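Per-residue structure
===
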Amino acid sequence: MLALGGICPLAQAQPAAAPSSQTKPDYPLGAGDAIKIQVFQNPDLTIETRVSENGSITYPLIGAVQLGGLGIAAAEKKIADALQTGGFIKAPQVNIVLLQIRGNQVSVLGQVNRPGRFPLETANTRLSDMLANAGGATATGDDVAIVVGVRNGQTFRKQIDIASIFLAEKLQDDIVLQGGDSIYVHRAPVFYIYGEAQRPGSFRIERGMTVMQALALGGGPTVRGSEKRLRLHRKAADGSIEQISPNLTDPVLPNDVIYVNESLF
């Protein structure tokens, strides 16, 4: 234990600069986070430590302190109060510097440009913020994100239409994330076109896409093909394949296969 002679019990000074707590005031500390704790004019109380699995640290003079889940400012106040209540320092100025974030991270997986684990730098980090950290969806990524985590001790899963947050002003769907959440962006749904099409292949289904638009994406019919002789293969609910003669204004569904027949003339 530190000798009390090395501490200034009556120290009352102007607050020292707090480089980290001011840039991340709301970040909730979590297990694995590395922090540096300083008390102004008391260098003997400067330590670097890591938050344990149960959310606590051991600090000189006051022993175990539970910091897990507290924001930086709240953690500073809790240590300062303990030092003051214990009679060690009359008016302690405590500063916590966040050295490494490991406790509160979110995994972003699937069709994003930079998949990986990203820290929750503030307590109100939203889905759109985290997708931006991951570089957004790739060209083959879907407009829908699936968020999985735990809320109030129960498994949480929510499927969110990303574009509707902005296009339809569904701001409530831009949910606040929590440590341990996972975000998954699936491959965008596609349709297939072959036969007498200029560019046969698979293409992404855009919102509200019709058969006519799908045909245009395939370059339209060749000189031998006819837009009036289309055949659409669609998987039914029972797994069987239906053959449909579609209208040009019919919607295109995921995994539809459009065949462009030859013209009769």
